[in-house]
From TrEMBL:
Record key words, sorted: Metal-binding
Superkingdom: Bacteria
Species annotation: Rhodospirillum centenum (strain ATCC 51521 / SW)
Identification of the protein by name: Cupin type-2 domain-containing protein
Record-level Gene Ontology MF annotations: metal ion binding
Cupin type-2 domain mapped to chain residues: 52-121
Length: 167
């Protein structure tokens, strides 16, 4: 390898099995080992995470995106894709494509008795609005790659008038 190769490798390559993973637990239903793969790479328009979800758990709320698309690759195990109000079995080797829009709220649940490992790949559209149908929340975010990121999470119906504080 040339002297430039290690630096290129660092900017361009991540190993799913070797990257350090964080342990996320929220309440009794949410648990996963996960890592953001694209963070610190040269990627500008793609995001990626790896999730390992224990039996009976899930890694994120039921949600939909208004701007970004997502793709999920089931690497090991099996579970259930909750999408558009339906429950669809998924297994290792399945590739799931979720376009933006209200037609495709989604969530992956581990409904099996073994760990479920999957790769999430998403376009990093900015700005983005994400809705959470189960809880009536929404999240607006913009400028996440800048020094002044914006993120707001609220419940629908708790906003203010357009002119509040303006005149």
């Amino acid at each position: 390898m040339s002297p430039a190769a290690p630096s290129l490798r660092d900017r361009l390559i991540r190993n799913l099995d070797e990257i350090p993973k964080a342990h996320r637990i929220r309440g009794t239903r949410v648990e996963s080992l996960w890592a953001r793969l694209a963070e610190g790479t040269a990627a500008r328009k793609l995001g990626a995470t790896v999730d390992i979800v224990p039996p009976g758990k899930l890694s994120c709320p039921y949600h939909l995106h208004h701007a970004q698309e997502e793709m999920f690759v089931i690497l090991a195990g099996s579970g259930t894709l909750r999408v558009a109000g339906e429950m669809i079995p998924v297994k290792a080797g399945d590739v799931i494509f979720i376009p933006p829009g209200a037609e495709y709220p989604h969530q992956i649940l581990n409904t099996s008795d073994a760990p479920l490992k999957y790769l999430s790949v998403s376009t990093q559209e900015d700005p983005e609005i994400c809705e959470y149908p189960d809880s009536g929340k929404f999240m607006a975010e913009a400028g996440l790659a800048t020094s002044r990121p914006f993120e707001a999470i609220h419940r629908q119906g708790t906003g203010v008038d357009y002119w509040d504080g303006e005149a």
